[in-house]
Design goal:
43% of the residues lie in helices and 14% in strands. By secondary structure, it is of the alpha/beta class. It folds into two domains: 224 residues, Rossmann fold (3-Layer(aba) Sandwich), CATH 3.40.50; 97 residues, Rossmann fold (3-Layer(aba) Sandwich), CATH 3.40.50.1100. The strands form two sheets. A six-stranded mixed beta sheet has the order 1-2-10-7-8-9, with helices on both faces. It has a four-stranded parallel beta sheet with strand order 5-4-3-6. β4, α5 and β5 form a beta-alpha-beta unit. The protein binds ligand AN7. Ligand AN7 binds next to α4, α9 and α13.
């Protein structure tokens, strides 16, 4: 039987740590839409090109698939029989799916009651060994690092360098599509693996002359979980954006390096700002992302408003996860929507339409 690969390792294999004999563990990830916003720039009255990289359209609904295809491919190549991660939800879903694909076992540590419903549903369905802990992501992460020294499991959190390798391909795709790097790249930041990966991708393309420049990197955190803004680790992170409810980022130095080398910055957005940006994207552009993902747009909009990101700029915001991941938060934001219930008659339907026109 011949196997047809369609994922990002196949596309970018010359720039990834694979060989002719590597078996790619793929679900067709990557090649996600780069959508130019049409209504929001007009709404805010600014002359800016804003694109969103809609990573929610990856196979498990988040950008984690980029890193996981690479990390699981290498784990299998090295003979590993099991992977493990701590997760706020998306990493666990991706790890579980790619482990199934590879025929190995996945153990995932998640903070009890603090992962979004869709992510839990996925992880259960893929059949991972779910270990719920009475503690947050940071506690889970330190347990994972400890246990990996005592048990035959490969860590697939973003401290695994192959995760970063896979995730850097998002920057390649953006340059391939726009013809060069954007002026600014805005990202939500939790563990800071993704901002590290984008910076690596942009830097590699610039070094080999595929891109003429690198973007200014702007990292945005939730105000209740903002160690990069505090300048130190945060012990009890809290935010509605549970994906980035992280107080002890694992890629601390690398993210600061991206910020410094690019002339960029970190900033914090309140939960209210994050949810407003999420709703705005849905209601004005038809793009539904999860709360954490909207942190990038919330940050970009404020910095465009203040002129920190000047008019005339080309801006890419990464939308890291699909809105369907967290239906509870979405529905609770739409309490005013009042769906009507009517008799199932032509007259009743007609009346609703005419009343609304
Ligand atoms: C939607 O799944 O850490 O800064 O355990 O799910 O690379 O950590 C998720 C992180 C942004 C932050 N947006 O990325 C996990 C986890 C979404 C996310 C981030 C996450 P990093």
């Amino acid at each position: 039987m011949s196997t047809r690969y369609t994922g990002l390792i196949e596309k970018y294999k010359d720039r990834l740590p694979v060989s002719e004999s590597t078996r790619f563990i793929s679900l067709g990830e990557g090649n996600t839409p780069l959508i130019q916003l049409q209504n929001i720039p007009r709404l805010i009255g600014k002359d800016v090109d804003i694109y969103v990289k809609y990573e929610g359209l990856n196979p498990t609904g988040s950008f984690k698939d980029r890193g996981m295809t690479m990390a699981v491919t290498k784990a299998v190549e090295e003979g590993s029989q099991a992977i493990i991660c701590a997760s706020t939800g998306n990493t666990s879903a991706a790890a579980a799916a790619y482990a199934v694909r590879a025929g190995i076992k996945a153990f995932v540590l998640i903070p009890e009651g603090k992962i979004a419903l869709g992510k839990l549903a996925q992880t259960l369905m893929y059949g991972a060994e779910i270990i719920q802990i009475n503690g947050n992501f940071d506690a889970g992460m330190s347990l994972v690092k400890e246990v990996a020294d005592h048990a035959p499991v490969t860590i697939v959190n973003s401290i695994n360098p192959f995760r970063i390798e896979g995730q850097k391909t998002a920057a390649f795709e953006i340059v391939d599509e726009l013809g060069d790097a954007p002026d600014f790249h805005c990202l939500p930041v939790g563990n800071a693996g993704n901002i590290t990966a984008y910076w690596k991708g942009y830097s590699e393309y610039a070094e080999s002359g595929v891109a003429n420049k690198r973007p200014v990197m702007c990292g945005y955190q939730a105000a209740g979980a903002a160690p990069f803004i505090a300048g130190k680790m945060v012990d009890n992170p809290e935010t509605v954006a549970t994906a980035i409810r992280i107080g002890h980022p694992q890629s601390w130095d690398k993210a600061w390096n991206a910020e410094k080398e690019s002339g960029g910055w970190f900033d914090a957005k309140t939960d209210a700002q994050i949810l407003a940006a999420q709703k705005m994207l849905s209601q004005f552009e038809g793009v539904f992302c999860e709360p954490a993902s909207a942190t990038s747009l919330a940050g970009a909009l404020e910095d465009i408003g203040s002129g920190k990101i000047p008019e005339g700029s080309k801006i890419v915001c990464t939308l890291t996860g699909n809105g369907l991941k967290d239906p509870d938060t979405a529905i609770s934001q739409c309490k005013d929507a009042h769906p009507v219930t009517i008799e199932a008659t032509l007259d009743a339907v007609k009346k609703v339409i005419l009343d609304q026109m």
